[in-house]
Write a structure and sequence with these properties.
With about 325 residues, this protein is α+β, with helices and mostly antiparallel strands. It contains 9 helices and 21 strands.
Length: about 325
């Protein structure tokens, strides 16, 4: 692809190489635009006689088409694809969602020439209408072989990004304290509600219990029978491990412990278990403040009904120092 200066009358059907501005400094036509007959008349009306243009050569795909073709393969879920000037395509959340990103695949795609894909971080909350990713092609044109290489790997291993919707989550909360059942509720209820509001959620049902093993088991079983999206345990104490009162009660209530300890600070004493497909989360100390902690990393995917694995939690260490 070669740029050349041509008479405006001969520019129709060619690609504009540089942005054209009016005499007042306002943009007239953006670079990368395929010039139409009406654009020629617009340029002439502004007194322009020459413009820099280029044409696609054999084996090349225009930047806008290339960006849209890649965008169609990059993401799935509750997404909309919106073309943008200059060989870009934006992926926008169609509803409140959790953004899930295959970071290894994203890196592999970005190693191939022809386009660059940028996304929000993995497990990020995105509100409806928010941009979650952008695809940018090389200026003006992409070699067909590069485009086909990107599309092939995305079809084989993709998608890179999933917008997993958060729809009417049911959040159950168990407040616990060794002595006073209502102490934890009084301490943590305000922070609990503020934190959930960040993800468009609220407390649907709650109980308070002393940290006596059988009382905890009965309370957990009662909450689990409601089939909530997630159960959050807000304790005034820090667990010594899955064998402490909260952990023991989780196991007795039928939970399988997925992970104890997270490489995140604050929040290293995380305890995550599953009763069938319902996650039960204890994060001691994390309900005392609205400052960032492990809950900000985990609540979004859990509210989107994504099953977090111990392996994924282990991967939070990179960037896990939150303060």
């Amino acid at each position: 692809m070669k740029a050349q200066s041509v008479d405006v009358k001969q520019a129709a059907g060619k690609i504009l190489c540089s942005t054209v501005f009016r005499a007042c400094g306002k943009k007239l036509l953006a670079k990368g635009r395929l010039i139409r007959e009406e654009d020629v008349e617009l340029l002439r009306s502004e007194g322009m006689t020459q413009v820099w243009v280029t044409e696609l050569e054999e084996g090349e795909i225009g930047e806008d088409e290339a960006a849209m073709r890649i965008a169609a393969e990059v993401g799935c879920g509750s997404l909309e694809i919106r073309p943008a000037p200059g060989g870009k395509a934006n992926l926008v959340a169609a509803e409140n969602c959790c953004v899930l990103v295959d970071e290894d695949l994203l890196r592999q795609v970005n190693c191939i020439s022809g386009a660059a894909v940028a996304t929000l971080a993995n497990f990020t909350y995105a509100a409806a209408g928010q941009r979650v990713a952008v695809v940018k092609s090389t200026p003006f044109a992409v070699p067909r072989q590069d485009l086909e290489a990107v599309v092939a790997i995305l079809r084989e291993r993709g998608p890179v990004l999933q917008a997993r919707p958060i729809r009417n989550p049911v959040v159950a909360v168990l407040y616990t304290d060794p002595i006073s059942a209502d102490k934890a509720r009084q301490l943590f209820d305000g922070v609990m509600r503020q934190r959930l509001e960040r993800f468009g959620a609220s407390v649907s049902l709650s109980l308070a219990s002393t940290e006596q093993p059988r009382a905890l088991v009965r309370s957990l079983e009662h909450l689990l029978r409601a089939r909530p999206t997630v159960v959050l345990v807000a304790s005034t104490t820090a667990p010594a491990g899955p064998s402490d009162a909260v952990g023991w009660a989780m196991v007795e209530a039928g939970c399988r412990i997925e992970r104890f300890m997270a490489p995140v600070e604050p929040g290293s004493l995380l305890l995550l278990g599953y009763k069938d497909d319902i996650p039960v989360v204890a994060a001691p100390g994390c309900w005392r403040s609205t400052k960032p902690n492990v809950l900000d990393l985990l609540l979004c995917p859990l509210l989107a009904r994504y099953r977090l694995s111990g392996w994924e939690i282990a991967g939070l260490g990179h960037g896990g120092l939150l303060e």
